Each structure stands twice: as structure tokens, then as C-alpha cells.
From TrEMBL:
InterPro entries: AAA+_ATPase (IPR003593), ABC1_TM_dom (IPR011527), ABC1_TM_sf (IPR036640), ABC_transporter-like_ATP-bd (IPR003439), ABC_transporter-like_CS (IPR017871), ABC_transporter_sub-D (IPR050835), P-loop_NTPase (IPR027417). The lineage of its organism: Bacteria, Bacillati, Actinomycetota, Actinomycetes, Mycobacteriales. The keyword Nucleotide-binding applies. Residues 446-659 form the ABC transporter domain. This is Putative ABC transporter permease/ATP-binding protein. The keyword NAD does not apply.
Length: 660
């Protein structure tokens, strides 16, 4: 019996096919990828969030290497599927020959039966080889796919986290929306990028944590499987879909015969039928599934909001418990959860229609080729094997062409993640583009020259402030609540964008800003005390001494204890930890925002004296409501909150002996 292809020569034929297909696929992917990244509405943001993986020196070799390997493996998968279709042709033709031999009887029948048997066992051997290669290929593909995904995810997470930290974008992105009103202000325009227009405002960035964690995971895993397909043969990707379409259209073209429709003979009918069938069904599917882009985007946002609300309860547990605020919290949580469910129902409704349509279309496609071919088979024009291969080629073509229809759901999820990651990158850039105070490094001195601070709505809090402090000077900032004391410190620290003027201070490493409640990082106590230095940089001995000096000797033995220290230490103890940090860091200038508000006056006195004695040359700037802090300072700055300010010396301060 004659086989459908020359199996003896197939290894070389397949290798040649693979080489040519790889060449074409590589060029096509590069060209299409370039065009999409340059000109399409979703390709541009996608390239923005993953482009560096393929271009940066640290990752590009691995990126291109793994991508090439995945392409080869995907194409090999397509080739094997093609060969399986020839195997099935031979198997069924062999069975048909054997059956005909049995029916015919006699010597000729016996010969046909033998031919059929030979063809059957030959097919089994072919299947054994193909199946082995198929399994091995699939295993390798799963591994390489995972390696690509993990590398991409690692690069994206590292990059997004660094970008979020860079220029304190994680803090300043809260002002991206608010800065809209100020875009028209002269000094804002002067300090912002020339390309920024008042209309060019990003709508802000919600839940960056979710974006960095969940959206990146989604882009890395769904993105790569959409391109190359999953591990199993049934899961197509764009590449395998296109390669299958090309390969199977040739088979279908060769096998499909003419069909007479309303008296007109249409050649290669199967081919046209599958194209028209899939085109029409896909257009309908896209129309049904279109709302999923928006709904998936919202699902991410609403889920993140709900989770953030839960985290807030955990963080504020003590406060909530004191207030007996469970009812309010529960209501808040449930209303956020209700929003998640409402959106989820909308997704389900669209998906019911979408999946229902796709499923019906795919079911019909199972019998469709038999219905079209059966007259030719009954007329004896084609053999059982040919019909079988036509049906399988139709099925493969249909699956491949339908990939874009069935995977539309995944595309919408991917698109939502890309939009969110692009939004984060955008907000990071805009956060950095917002104005910041001009800082000048100056050894052992602090100068504020013409500092003007406003609220986000443009109301002046401080107008043209000038202050000059030399080593050992200490300034206390006072004023009614809301007059802008904290905001001044925020501005000087480079957090508050609505500030103008020049600020000279010791270099970053020698200037320390302390907020009212010191931040306590996760980890052991030594990490908490040494922050923002690393514990090994300051050493255990230094940490122990600092703890003893700030009256926390009971903590000396617990340096390596891992606790949620922000919840274990009392506010007063946390403020003493902040003073320990001053002793460890030995800054040339320190700015403190009500840093002793939680300790009693005796302890406050002792802590200030400690700093003055240990670090007599350090410049102190304290924000304080208490008159007891005055005695540790040399000057007082009074803010009125409407722009005006007064600066006056403080007499008879016991700290005035600091320079002696
Ligand atoms: N993110 C913000 N958006 C809008 N307005 C803000 C923001 N942060 C602060 N403000 C406003 O800026 C003004 C100054 O606030 P700031 O916290 O500096 O006051 P303060 O003098 O430190 O007050 P207190 O003594 O109560 O700590 C207040 O009116 C406050 O409402």
C-alpha cells in the first residue's frame, strides 16, 4: 500500500521544514512585533513594560535565547500535529484496505488483507516514534516556557519596584492628580517638563502593590502562553495558530474537492468553508466579548480595593478595637466586596454568552467536515483515510483560526494588566516630573532661601521663607494646627511638590528626617533600630549602646527577636527608637516632626540633652507644639498659616552651651 508521505525521508524533511518555518516565523515576529510596538494602541504600552527585558544587557541574551527556543519548540509541535494527521490517514486507509481484502476474499483479498495489516503495524511504529517525540517536546516546552516566564517576571518586578521607588514616586504619585490645578502656575511650569500640558494629566494610580504583583504575573504568564501556546498540544498560541493555519491549509487544499452548490461547482470547497465559518463566528465572538476588556480592568481594581481594605483593618486593628469600630469596618468591607461581586456577575453574564457561542460553534465544527465530505466518500471518490485526514485538518485549521476567538478572553485580561502597568509607569514618570525643591549640598550648614510652600489647591502656607543655621544651631518650628509645619518638612525632604525656593543642607547621607511616628520595618529589632542603615553597617554593639542611651535597656537582649515591632513597642518607645537612630546615624542635620510628642516632659528633656551632648554640632530642626521643647533650641520660627512667618532667637536656653 502506498503511504500518504515518505516516512523514511521524514526526519530530514521535517528538519528542513523546521529551519524554513523558524526563519519565516522569526522574521515575521520581529517585523510584526516592531510594527505593533511602534504603532498599535496596545503594543506601545506592552513594549514599554517588557521592552527592556529584550534590550538590557543583563537579560537580553537570555530573553532572545529562550524566545528562539520556544519558537522552535512551538513549531516542532505544529509539525508533529501535521505528521499525526498523515499517520491517521495511513492508519485508516490501511484499515480500509484490510476490510476490503476481507470482503473480497480469495488470493487477491488475502494480499490486500496483508497489505492492510502491514500498514496498520507500520502506523503503530510511526505513532510510537511521534508520540515519544511529542511527549519529550512537551516536557521541554513546559520547562523552557516556565524559565522564560520566571525570567520575565523577575525582570519586570525588579524594574517596576525600582521605578516605583525612584525619585520617591511611591509617595509623590498621590499628587499626580492634584497637580492639575497647579499646572497653570508660573513656577510650576518653570520646573516641570516642557512636554507636560494641563490636559496631559494621568488619572492617578490605584493599588500599585496589586499592579506590581498580580498584573506582572499575569503579563508574564498569559503573555508568553498567548504567543507560544501552553505545554499541551491543545493549547494554541499566536505562533502555533499561524503555523498550523499555514500547514493545514496546504493539506486541506490538497484534499478538498469541489462541491456543487445550487448547481454551481465550487472547487476546494472545504478550504473556503473553514475560512468563512471561522471568520463569521469570530466576528460575532469579538462583538460579544468586547465588554470584557473594561470589566476585567475593573475586576482587578475592585479586588485590590477590597484586599487593601482588609489590610487596613489588620494595620489599624488596635485603633478599631478601641473604638469598637467593627460595624463600620464590616460595612466598609462588605460594600467593597459587593462591588467586586457586582462586577463579577457582569463578567459572568458576558462570559455565558461568549463561551456559549464559542462552544456551540466548536461543537458544530466536529461534524461539519463529515457532512460536507460524505457524498464524495459514498461515491467512492475519496478513501476513508482521506476523509479522516480532511476532518482532522479541518479540525486543526478550525482550532487554529478560532484561537483568536476563544483566547479573546485571555487577551482582554492581558490588555487590562498592560493598561494598569503602563498607568503605573506613567504615574512614576509624572511623579518625578513634578517640581521638587532645589537642593544644594553644603557641608555642615542649612540655608532656606525664598522658600514658598502652598497647598495642592494653591493656597500659600509659607511665603518666601529665609532661614540660616550653622553647626550646633537648633530651630523650633511652631504655629497653629494646619499652619504648614509638617508640610514645610515634607517640602524640604523632597516629598511635597508644591514648594519653590532653594534649600542648602548637608548631603543626603548626613541629613535625617524623622516623622512623628518612626517607621518600623518588618524583621528583627536590630533592623528596626538601625533603619534606614543596614544592621550590619552599624553593628550589634552600637545598636545595644544606642538602646541603652535612649532608655530602652530592656530591649538590648532582644536584638534578634522577630516581631511586628510597630505593634509591640509603645508610641513613646518607638519615638525613643527614633532617637537611637539619630545616635547611630550621627547626622549633620536632623529634622524632627513632633518627635517627642508621645513621651513625658522628663524623658523629652533627657532625649534632647542626650542629642545635644552626643552630637553638639548637629543642626536640629524640630516641629513642636510644646513650650518645653523651646529650651533645647536657639531660634523659633512661627508660622501663621497664611504665608506670613516670624523668626526670633530664644534666650536663656540651657542648650546654648552647645558650642562650648
Ligand atoms: N495631601 C494633601 N492634600 C491636600 N491638602 C493637604 C495635604 N496634606 C496637607 N494638606 C493641608 O495642608 C495644610 C498644612 O498641613 P500640615 O500637616 O503641614 O499642618 P501642621 O501645621 O503640621 O498641622 P499639625 O500641627 O496639626 O500637625 C493643612 O491645611 C492640610 O489640610
Amino acid at each position: 500500500m502506498e503511504y500518504s508521505i515518505d516516512w523514511g525521508n521524514e526526519v530530514w524533511a521535517s528538519l528542513k521544514w523546521l529551519a524554513i518555518a523558524f526563519g519565516i516565523a522569526a522574521v515575521a515576529m520581529l517585523v510584526i512585533g516592531f510594527l505593533l510596538a511602534r504603532f498599535s494602541r496596545w503594543g506601545r504600552p506592552l513594549w514599554r513594560v517588557i521592552g527592556g527585558f529584550f534590550t538590557e544587557p543583563g537579560t537580553r541574551l537570555k530573553a532572545w535565547g529562550l524566545a528562539a527556543l520556544l519558537t522552535v519548540l512551538a513549531l516542532l509541535g505544529v509539525r508533529i500535529t501535521v505528521l499525526f494527521s498523515y499517520f491517521s490517514n495511513d492508519l485508516f486507509t490501511g484499515l480500509q484496505t484490510a476490510a476490503e481484502g476481507l470482503g473480497a476474499g480469495g488470493p487477491q483479498g488475502a494480499e490486500m488483507l496483508q497489505m492492510g495489516k502491514d500498514a496498520f503495524w507500520h502506523s503503530m511504529a510511526v505513532f510510537g516514534i511521534l508520540a515519544t517525540i511529542h511527549v519529550v517536546r512537551t516536557m521541554i516546552e513546559i520547562y523552557v516556557g516556565a524559565a522564560f516566564e520566571i525570567n520575565l517576571r523577575r525582570w519586570m518586578t525588579g524594574g517596576a519596584a525600582a521605578d516605583w521607588m525612584n525619585g520617591r514616586a511611591f509617595y509623590r504619585n498621590r499628587f499626580v492628580d492634584l497637580s492639575a490645578g497647579l499646572m497653570r502656575r508660573k513656577w510650576f511650569r518653570r520646573t516641570s517638563e516642557p512636554s507636560q500640558k494641563p490636559t496631559d494629566i494621568h488619572p492617578g494610580v490605584d493599588n500599585p502593590d496589586q499592579r506590581i504583583q498580580a498584573d506582572i504575573t499575569n503579563v508574564a504568564s498569559v503573555g508568553s502562553s498567548l504567543l507560544w501556546g501552553g505545554g499541551g498540544s491543545s493549547t494554541n498560541g499566536v505562533l502555533t495558530a499561524v503555523a498550523s493555519i499555514v500547514s493545514f491549509s496546504k493539506i486541506l487544499w490538497d484534499l478538498s474537492g469541489p462541491v456543487t452548490l445550487l448547481g454551481v461547482e465550487i472547487p476546494r470547497m472545504m478550504m473556503w468553508l473553514v475560512l468563512v465559518y471561522v471568520l463569521v463566528t469570530s466576528v460575532v465572538a469579538f462583538a460579544i466579548g468586547r465588554p470584557l476588556i473594561r470589566l476585567n480592568f475593573w475586576q482587578e481594581r475592585l479586588t485590590a480595593n477590597f484586599r487593601y481594605a482588609l489590610v487596613r483593618v489588620r494595620d489599624g486593628a488596635e485603633n478599631i478595637a478601641f473604638y469598637r469600630g467593627e460595624r463600620v469596618e464590616h460595612n466598609g468591607l462588605m460594600s467593597r466586596f459587593a462591588a467586586v461581586i457586582k462586577n463579577y456577575w457582569q463578567i459572568i453574564h458576558v462570559q455565558m454568552a461568549f463561551v456559549g457561542w464559542n462552544f456551540s460553534v466548536s461543537q458544530l465544527a466536529v461534524v461539519f467536515p463529515y457532512l460536507v465530505q460524505i457524498p464524495r466518500f459514498f461515491d467512492g471518490q475519496i478513501k476513508l483515510g482521506d476523509m479522516q485526514q480532511t476532518a482532522s485538518a479541518f479540525g486543526e485549521m478550525h482550532d487554529a483560526l478560532s484561537f483568536f476567538r476563544t483566547a479573546y478572553d485571555d487577551f482582554t485580561g492581558l490588555r487590562a494588566s498592560i493598561i494598569r502597568l503602563d498607568g503605573l509607569a506613567d504615574a512614576d514618570v509624572k511623579s518625578r516630573a513634578m517640581p521638587e525643591i532645589t537642593t544644594v549640598d553644603r557641608d555642615r550648614a542649612v540655608r532656606l532661601a525664598d522658600i514658598t510652600v502652598t497647598t495642592p489647591t494653591g493656597d500659600e502656607l509659607i511665603r518666601a521663607l529665609n532661614v540660616s543655621l550653622d553647626p550646633g544651631d537648633a530651630l523650633v518650628v511652631k504655629g497653629r494646627s494646619g499652619s504648614g509645619k509638617t508640610t514645610l518638612l515634607r517640602g524640604l525632604a523632597g516629598l511635597w511638590p508644591f514648594i519653590d525656593g532653594e534649600f542648602s543642607r548637608p548631603p543626603d547621607a548626613h541629613t535625617l528626617f524623622l516623622s512623628q511616628m518612626p517607621y518600623i520595618p518588618l524583621g528583627d529589632l536590630r533592623t528596626a533600630v538601625a533603619y534606614p542603615a543596614l544592621p550590619d553597617d552599624v553593628g550589634d554593639e552600637g545598636i545595644k549602646q544606642a538602646l541603652e542611651k535612649v532608655f530602652l535597656p530592656h530591649l538590648v537582649g532582644r536584638l534578634y527577636d522577630e516581631e511586628d515591632w510597630a505593634k509591640v513597642l509603645s508610641p513613646g518607645e518607638q519615638q525613643r527608637v527614633a532617637f537611637a537612630r539619630i545616635l547611630l546615624t550621627k547626622p549633620q542635620a536632623v529634622f524632627m516632626d513632633e518627635a517627642t510628642s508621645a513621651v513625658d516632659e522628663g524623658l523629652e528633656y533627657a532625649l534632647y540633652r542626650l542629642v545635644r551632648t552626643e552630637l553638639p554640632d548637629t543642626i536640629l530642626v524640630s516641629v513642636s507644639h510644646r513650650s518645653t521643647t523651646d529650651q533645647h533650641h536657639t531660634e523659633v520660627l512661627e508660622l501663621t498659616g497664611d504665608g506670613a512667618w516670624t523668626l526670633s532667637p530664644i534666650d536663656s536656653s540651657p542648650s546654648l552651651d552647645k558650642r562650648s
